[in-house]
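Write out the 3D structure for:
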Amino acid sequence: MAKVEHPLQALSAYLPDGAFEPVLALIHQYKVHLTVTKARKSVLGDYRHPFLGANHKISVNGNLNKYEFLITLLHELGHLLCYEQYKNRV
């Protein structure tokens, strides 16, 4: 099945009330390419740093409840911030 792009507004369905606007601001600020994935057994989310001109990439499992999704997304954004500050020195 091919991947389908959705507007960022669709992200609000995965987040608790009041979390969409702050999360959206971070996604825009750091130019994150966010992917909501099918359930994975080994990971809840994943961060990939920019490579060859691409943007930061974060994926989060779509089967998580709204709070698990938010916590996982914030965790992956933490990896992004660490990369922004320290690059590959951590």
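DSSP finds two helices and three strands in the chain.
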